[in-house]
Write a structure and sequence with these properties.
The chain is mainly α and about 170 residues long. The protein folds into three domains: about 15-90, Arc Repressor Mutant, subunit A (Orthogonal Bundle); about 90-125, no CATH class; about 135-165, no CATH class. Helices cover about 40% and strands about 10% of the residues. A two-stranded antiparallel sheet has the order 1-2. The longest helix has 13 residues, at about 50-65.
């Protein structure tokens, strides 16, 4: 999936991701989008962020290709914000972040839980390999230098088993 995200010269996907969504209010804006909110006043009311900061974050998310801005009213012109395909692909990331925190809490201490909308049953998300369905949180899964890794990244992962990772097509 091609993206509009272009931040500094960061080779590490973790730092690039955090550069886009690493601020708490950005995560809350995205959370609101996944809950169906799309308008500036809704974000402002739900998050309690100043209008100037909210304007800045929304602009950044649009520039990164995570949200798109569409007019919903002509006079005066007002806009709503919708997740793009790239933005929707962040849902598992947010689900994983919430699950990580909830795992640290007793069930009665959790203020928000993930449930199956059909049954109401609480679910516990895990990250799995798409090809095998195996969980990837075990120590046998490691990072390795990828096809476009620069010298620093290759040096960092030198000696890691199977350091040459084939690009997915």
């Amino acid at each position: 999936m091609a993206s509009k995200i272009r931040l500094e010269d960061r080779e590490c996907p973790l730092s690039t991701t955090l550069g886009v969504v690493g601020e708490w209010w950005t995560v809350l804006i995205l959370h609101d989008c996944f809950d169906g909110y799309s308008r500036f006043d809704e974000f402002e009311a739900n998050i309690g962020l100043s209008s100037s900061m909210l304007t800045s974050r929304l602009k950044s998310l649009v520039e990164a290709g995570i949200l798109e801005r569409k007019p919903y009213q002509e006079r005066p012109v007002r806009y709503e914000y919708a997740l793009t395909d790239l933005g929707r692909s962040l849902r598992p990331v947010l689900v994983s972040l919430a699950a990580w925190r909830n795992a640290q809490l007793a069930p009665q201490e959790r203020s928000m839980i993930l449930v199956d909308s059909r049954t109401g049953r609480e679910v516990e998300p895990v990250v799995v390999d798409a090809a095998t369905g195996d969980r990837v949180d075990g120590t046998q899964y490691v990072y390795a230098a990828g096809p476009s890794a620069g010298d620093a990244m290759r040096k960092r992962y030198e000696g890691v088993a199977n350091t040459h990772v084939e690009a997915r097509t």
